[in-house]
Amino acid sequence: MESVFISGLGMIGSSLARSIRQGDDEVKITGSDPDDANGQFMIQSGLIDQVVSFEQGAQQADVIFLCGPVDVIIDQIKELPTLNLKPGVVVTDVGSTKAKIMTAAKVLSDHNITFVGGHPMAGSHLTGAKSGRTDLFSQATYFLIPNNGMAGVEQIKRLLKTSTSKWRVVSIENHEQFVGAASHLPHVIASSLVQATNSSLKNTEVGLESAAGGFRDTTRIAAADPDMWTAIMLSNQEVILDQIDEFSKALATIKQDIQAGNQTAIHNFFSKSQEIRQLIDQG
Amino acid sequence: MESVFISGLGMIGSSLARSIRQGDDEVKITGSDPDDANGQFMIQSGLIDQVVSFEQGAQQADVIFLCGPVDVIIDQIKELPTLNLKPGVVVTDVGSTKAKIMTAAKVLSDHNITFVGGHPMAGSHLTGAKSGRTDLFSQATYFLIPNNGMAGVEQIKRLLKTSTSKWRVVSIENHEQFVGAASHLPHVIASSLVQATNSSLKNTEVGLESAAGGFRDTTRIAAADPDMWTAIMLSNQEVILDQIDEFSKALATIKQDIQAGNQTAIHNFFSKSQEIRQLIDQG
């Protein structure tokens, strides 16, 4: 019988358990969490079979999912080679700052332990086992970054076959480039936009609370947790700086067109953006 | 009996009729529209009392709502002083490029005709009388820009009392500053972001179709009609250019902080943006 151990039974970890159980109820699932309530909820809901210690869970497992905060994941990666793991065990995680984790995971490669960095692009502001959902990963991109050829990749996909994730096996460089462009840069831009508009309206009669849906959409992500985003900026510094420059080039182009009152050029710029943006929604 | 004439029975004009009727069914509402289907729908639904010509409608009305496209509004503003209007008539409109309309409306001031520029921050991609809604303006900011003290303002608010709009009586300068910051600048930024991220990912394995909800929210408005947005850029050029500079200053600050790896400064920047953005949703 295949055995899976999930360390961290919060929203992501508990959703993985739900998906694995739905896909094959013969898989044995054990779990651990510093918060007893999460483990108890999972047992009572029949979503895991046993609450175990990290050491016990890791040593019994064929596949280990590390689903805690990034610093906990890194500590656990360091601990794994000291344990008596099953031969052929596959270790994966769900941390979003992947560069740091992949660097830490070199210790696993050194011990011939297969590690597949994982990054499901799903989540919400909710936390805890109760807020997990079977369909949390549905249609979401789920990055896999293997350290050992394709070892472990099919096993993870098979366990999560009912998740309907969009699997993307990528290099760490391409992962960082992608999250830089699609997530980190937009956060920098939305945060800058909020401050610029707030300054612009400081001395007028109307404040940003009058803004319509378009502004709210464009700046929504600026309300996210500053702790998390500060850590992300420092983890992907170079890529983000390059992309800020790429953005500034585009902004300089449209600024020049507006300055020149060049109707055709402005129209071309907006048409190009419209086309790209519409393709994304069809993608 | 108070008489209202609505020129243009599309989504906005027909929604105004719905709201006026709901507020006071004794008000006589006449309407005109180049598309006969809109007029017929409004009559059959009991939302207006009579389909009339522009001239006839304008001459019988106590309050005139101009709800056509901006160029039609401007032509109609020029025509109004040549008609035999009721003394004390109040003229208002719903065009979004207000500077052009307020400039055109000087001809009304010259003829002692009260004009209150109007800009309800509501709408959607839908068109036509059938797509109008009684609650279209609910909780939306509705700008009023009077040319003659407060004349006409209370009359418009009273007619639309059930709309639950958030009325803001402002100067044209403040209006342009506000829409520049809350609508025009975000459009420039979202369009630039789409192009920058697209360039950044051109040579990687993963395209923007893998982007998650945050990116989609931040760039949603970039999919809007380039014709309309080109016209808007040219109508509010100076304000937009100033605000691009304001934005670039904010971006330069966070770029420098990331470059320096200054954790405290990055955190302060994101915390400030978070605070402002959260206040908007509470406003």
What general form of chain A does the structure show? elongated
Q: State Rg of chain A.
A: 22 Å
Uncertain segments of chain A are none
Mean pLDDT of chain A: 94
Biggest interface, residues from each chain: A-B, 95 and 95 residues
Note the beta-strand portion of chain A. 5-15%
Q: How far apart are the termini of chain A?
A: 38 Å
The domain count of chain A comes to 2
Instruction: Count up the helices of chain A.
Output: 12
Oligomer: homodimer
Structure description:
- 2 copies of one chain form a homodimer.
- The first copy, chain A, has helices at about 10-25, 35-45, 55-60, 70-80, 100-105, 105-110, 155-160, 170-200, 215-220, 225-235, 235-260, 265-280, and strands at about 5, 30, 50, 65, 90-95, 115-120, 140-145, 165-170.
- Chain A is an alpha/beta fold.
- Chain A has 2 domains: about 5-170, NAD(P)-binding Rossmann-like Domain (Rossmann fold), CATH 3.40.50.720; about 175-280, Orthogonal Bundle (6-phosphogluconate dehydrogenase C-terminal fold).
- In chain A, strands 3-2-1-4-5-6-7-8 form an 8-stranded mixed beta sheet, with helices on both faces.
- In chain A, helix 8 (about 170-200) crosses helix 11.
- The longest helix of chain A is centred in the middle third of the chain and has 29 residues, at about 170-200.
- The first copy, chain A, is elongated and about 70 Å long.
- The two termini of chain A are about 40 Å apart.
- Chains A and B meet through helix 8, helix 9, helix 10, helix 11 and helix 12 of A and helix 8, helix 9, helix 10, helix 11 and helix 12 of B.
